Amino acid sequence: MHGPASPGWLLVALCAATGAYCLLRMRSSVEEQRRAAGGEALMGFGMAAMAVPAAVFTPPSWMWPVYAVVFGAAALRALWAARGHPHHLHHLMGTAAMVYMAVVMAGSPEAHHHAHGDTGVPMVTGLLLVYFTGYVLLSGIRLIPGTVAGSTGAVAGWGDRPELARACRLSMGIGMLAMLLTL
Questions:
Q1: The pTM is what?
Q2: pLDDT tens string 60-92
Q3: Residue 42, SS3?
Q4: Neighbour tally for 94: CB within 10 Å
């Protein structure tokens, strides 16, 4: 992604840490949580890999189509899973955003949006920014104590704690916003 190196490394660290926690959540005894955690781990590590500052490492040209194929397959899986669980629609949006970013990066040289004198934000990028901004705001509100319906107060295992899963999703939403802004 384009942009300064320091914020890029912070984004890499945030996304990698989120991906690592999601891998640990895959040990949950709840099957649906394990499935969601697997998709979220893929997103976290994929976002971390895409966020490595271009000044440090410029991926080979074949890397972007690979990202598009991997996240395209993940999008198809999320679409299939969304039949019974609407939560997977967000996974579909996230994977579709990753495919979009990979396609844009594959078809553009460094700083292409400045080189051609383009002004404004492309419509797809703008729509994704609106979606993820809303998602981040809603996720942040859900982290406020007392706003979650059905909280029992029972102590769950550290991998099954819903507030940690929400915080994980919130951090990935913030990361997605940052990546879309630098696109």
A1: 0.81
A2: 889 999 999 999 999 999 898 888 777 778 889
A3: helix
A4: 28
Phi, psi of 143 (to 5 degrees): -80, -15
Kindly write down the DSSP assignment for every residue of 45-74, as one continuous string.
Answer: HHHHHHHS-TTT----TTHHHHHHHHHHHH
* Residue that has been written with the tokens 């802004």 in this structure: 181
Strands (E) located in the chain: none
Sign of the torsion formed by the C-alpha atoms of 9, 27, 37 and 135: negative
Nearest Cα to 41, choosing from 64, 68, 20, 72? 20
Token code pair at residue 155: 């102590």
Contact between 157 and 34 (Cβ < 8 Å): no
Residue 19 burial (C-beta neighbours within 10 Å; 0-12, 13-18, 19+)? buried
Domain spans of the chain, in order of start = 5-111+120-182
